[in-house]
Amino acid sequence: MENTQNLADLGIEGLRSRVAAELARTRRRSAELTDAVDDEDLVKQHSPLMSPLVWDLAHVGSQEELWLVRDVGGAAAIRPDIDDLYDAFQHARSDRPQLPLLGPTEAREYLATVRSKVFDLLDRVPLEGRRLIEQAFAFGMIVQHEQQHDETMLATHQLRDGPPALAADPPPSDVDVLPPEVLVPGGPFTMGTSTEPWALDNERPAHQVHVDDFFIDSTPVTGGAYQAFIDAGGYHDPTWWSEAGWAYRQRADLRAPRFWWRDGDRWLRRRFGHVEPVPADEPVVHVSFHEAEAYAAWAGKRLPTEQEWEKAARFDPASGRSRRYPWGDDDPRPEHANLGGRHLQPAPAGAYRDGAAPCGARQLIGDVWEWTATDFLPYPGFSAFPYREYSEVFFGPDYKVLRGGSFGTDAAACRGTFRNWDYPIRRQIFAGFRCARTPGQEERD
């Protein structure tokens, strides 16, 4: 049995108000990320891995126009001439600076025009009678899409040179001493969802999965623990690496997580323009799947499967059902998880006791995306909706699944069933990991 969040309980007018608030809150975040730098910075490509910030800004407006103004609203196109420019499948990120993109002022004006029409539409659309608009799904999809690009823009900020442009309060430092790992008993549980109103197609449908007994780390692997792997020569010993991982480590000359470097007997990192010592108690971030897998092997463990991760995060043995989040069914609050760019860094391992899962693990939501051992594949009974390009074209062995969200992920785009995916070599994303272990598997002392 799975949990649900019935937005219909709000009533139509309550649902309209909820959608309006989410759209406005999300747009404020987009504005904060783009207003923080000047126009020259907005049009510059800070890394070939990323688009110029101004492309992301206009792209979220283009998608909002396509899905809400044109499809849901049935209105005439506002800027049909830019459809191809902001189609993510038409142009590689590295090529986008050469395109005739909207400038910062024009992009902001375009977004304002689209949003005005969307708010007018929200006042009159029935929000029922058609799958795309049932319980405001299309509006929720657009909120999530923009928040995903906000996290992408945050990653671009991390890659940009120059003085800091963003600021935030530090995360909470109230932590508990936890056992290194917790046991998750084997048995069936409900994975995925068929009822979460704004869940995306790859999260569906709910289905029963059996997982054997396993141990999972109580928290993500920390910077201090990862330094021990480096100091033990982990980057220079192929024993711990897969064949593909070792080939990539050599080709890319990996020696430490991205944005780390050694300064005498200590490690430093660059974080949004700040240079600081690597915190030993904070989850390690900016590591690839290959690095995570090598560390786990060195530690005598492994990465959890996606099924194991979701069972640890959602299954409540007392009720026999899967929760929406580790702590229960309520939407995330600041005491539950580090989300939304509120702190611009992970919280120390062992924080957020109110966000603990029934198994006792912490920080399964927020702080760092967590690599799993699983390829990105469809669930049994998967059906692409509302378009193939969201998930279906990415299914296969080229991508690994990440779960749980990061400090840069918004609550609207993160839940216990949410699935992210990326190439196993990616390091610019806010990704870390935790380890798992099969009973009887010998871990490092």
Helix content: 25-40%
How would you name the CATH homologous superfamily of the largest domain?
Answer: paralog of FGE (formylglycine-generating enzyme)
- The parts where pLDDT drops under 50 for at least 5 residues are none
Q: Tally the helices: what do you get?
A: 9
Q: Could you spell the SSE succession in H and E letters? A: HHHHHEEEEHHEEEHHEEEEEEE
Q: Name the structural class.
A: alpha+beta
Number of strands: 14
Strand order of the largest sheet: 12-11-10-13
Distance between the termini: 39 Å
Mean pLDDT value: 96
Radius of gyration: 22 Å
Count of spatially separate domains: 2
The CATH architecture category of the largest domain equals: Alpha-Beta Complex
CATH class of the largest domain: Alpha Beta
| CATH fold name of the largest domain | paralog of FGE (formylglycine-generating enzyme)
Biggest sheet character: 4 strands, mixed
**What is the 3D form?**
globular
Strand content: 5-15%
Descriptive notes:
This protein is of the alpha+beta class and 445 residues long. The protein folds into two domains: 7-159, dinb family like domain (Four Helix Bundle (Hemerythrin (Met), subunit A), Up-down Bundle); 169-445, paralog of FGE (formylglycine-generating enzyme) (Alpha-Beta Complex), CATH 3.90.1580.10. 29% of the residues lie in helices and 13% in strands. It contains nine helices and 14 strands. It has helices spanning 11-35, 39-43, 53-72, 104-122, 137-159, 223-231, 243-252, 289-298, 306-314; strands at residues 181-184, 187-191, 207-211, 214-217, 260-263, 266-271, 274-277, 315-316, 321-322, 369-376, 396-403, 419-422, 431-432, 436-437. A four-stranded mixed β-sheet has the order 12-11-10-13. Strands 1-4-14 form a three-stranded antiparallel β-sheet, with helices on one face. Strands 5-6-7 form a three-stranded antiparallel β-sheet, with no helix packed on it. A hairpin with a 2-residue loop joins strand 5 and strand 6. Helix 7 crosses helix 8 (289-298). The longest helix is centred in the first third of the chain and has 25 residues, at 11-35. The chain is globular, with a radius of gyration of 22 Å. It starts with 10 loop residues before the first helix and ends in an 8-residue tail after the last strand. The model has no long low-confidence stretch (mean pLDDT 96).
